[in-house]
Amino acid sequence: ETGVTQTPRHLVMGMTNKKSLKCEQHLGHNAMYWYKQSAKKPLELMFVYSLEERVENNSVPSRFSPECPNSSHLFLHLHTLQPEDSALYLCASSQDPGTDTQYFGPGTRLTVL
Amino acid sequence: AQKVTQAQTEISVVEKEDVTLDCVYETRDTTYYLFWYKQPPSGELVFLIRRNSFDEQNEISGRYSWNFQKSTSSFNFTITASQVVDSAVYFCALSEAQDSGYALNFGKGTSLLVTP
């Protein structure tokens, strides 16, 4: 595997379900990111991790819970989501957080019923 | 406030035409970086270019070229002799050394459709 991978690619869940999104980067980077992309809106940064430590959390509701067990893996745990949370969730990584180029995964298309 | 403006929401061209995608940015930082990404229908954001604020040289890569002008705060992207495979949404983004934190500030994107 190369680059940034995300699983699953598509997810449909009910509002009472609990699910997790997984991201893995094979680039040897130190920083990982979660973005949300909704229709008609710019990409929104959700969380940033640097060397497994969360360094930014942009007022994201607590129903989204990130986890970074090591510098290669990033999870987004989802519980009691709302229909408006339906979106494309993109993971990215960069050598270091900040102005380094971010490389993105293919995203997880989430639909909340 | 939106830091990156892509005024063109959708552009449609016929194959082999040249097309320019506009990007205007806003920053108070003297050190910043500008990016272009391509998002094909598959969804993945593909990195195209990164330029820093101290390098105003235009760049050419195959059919792609970029025109960075600090005087007008613009970083425009031109595709020469467009092809159907160029159809995608293109995003311009800004990263600031001081003000952005860790965020890439994206524009809303320009959807390019190239028809045969």
Which key phrases capture this entry?
heterodimer; A: 113 residues; mainly beta; seven-stranded mixed sheet; 11 strands; B: 116 residues; four-stranded antiparallel sheet; 51% strand
Number of DSSP E strands of chain B: 12
Oligomer: heterodimer
Number of helices of chain B: 0
Give the terminus-to-terminus CA distance of chain A. Answer: 32 Å
Q: State the share of residues found in helices of chain B, binned by percent.
A: under 10%
Specify the biggest β-sheet of chain B.
6 strands, mixed
Counted by DSSP, the helix tally of chain A is 0
In helices, the fraction of residues of chain A equals under 10%
Please tell me the overall pLDDT of chain A. Answer: 92
Radius of gyration from the alpha-carbon trace of chain B, in angstroms: 14 Å
Structure description:
The complex is a heterodimer of chains A (113) and B (116). Chain A has 113 residues and is an all-beta fold. Chain A contains no helices and eleven strands. Chain A has strands at residues 4-7, 10-13, 18-25, 31-37, 44-50, 53-57, 64-70, 73-79, 87-94, 103-104, 108-112. In chain A, strands 2, 4, 5, 6, 9, 10 and 11 form a seven-stranded mixed sheet that branches. Chain A has a four-stranded antiparallel sheet with strand order 1-3-8-7, with no helix packed on it. The N and C termini of chain A lie far apart (32 Å). The mean pLDDT of chain A is 92. Chain B is an all-beta fold. Helices cover 0% and strands 51% of the residues of chain B. Chain B has strands at 4-5, 10-14, 19-21, 24-25, 32-39, 46-52, 59-61, 64-69, 74-79, 88-96, 105-106, 110-115. In chain B, strands 2, 5, 6, 10, 11 and 12 form a six-stranded mixed sheet that branches. A four-stranded antiparallel sheet of chain B has the order 3-9-8-7, with no helix packed on it. Chain B has a two-stranded antiparallel ribbon with strand order 1-4. Chain B starts with a strand and ends with a strand. The relative contact order of chain B is 0.34. The mean pLDDT of chain B is 93. The A-B interface holds A 31, 33, 40-43, 45, 48, 55-56, 58, 88, 90, 92, 97-99, 101-107, 109 and B 2, 4, 32-33, 35, 37, 42-47, 50, 91, 95-97, 101-109.
